[in-house]
Write a structure and sequence with these properties.
This protein has helices at about 20-55, 55-60. With about 70 residues, it is an all-alpha fold. The longest helix has about 35 residues, at about 20-55.
């Protein structure tokens, strides 16, 4: 991971004391949040993905493979 600041990234530590159940709960929460954001902003996000990640990554993504 780069140490350069980015307007697209917030660096933080994940607590090492979480139980696997707590980690799964956070994982599920983030997955649900990603799904809600995608369903609301899908069109705008599709336009921004090439700008943010570069064209090469979006060339590799098949929209049918996106699970949300």
């Amino acid at each position: 991971m780069s140490t350069e600041p980015s307007r697209f990234r917030i660096d933080f530590d994940i607590p090492a004391w979480w139980t696997p159940e707590q980690a799964l709960a956070v994982f599920d929460l983030l997955d649900d949040l990603r799904e809600k954001i995608w369903s609301h902003y899908q069109g705008q996000l599709r336009e921004l993905l090439p700008e943010h990640y570069g064209h090469s990554i979006t060339d590799q993504i098949d929209p049918e493979d996106i699970p949300y």
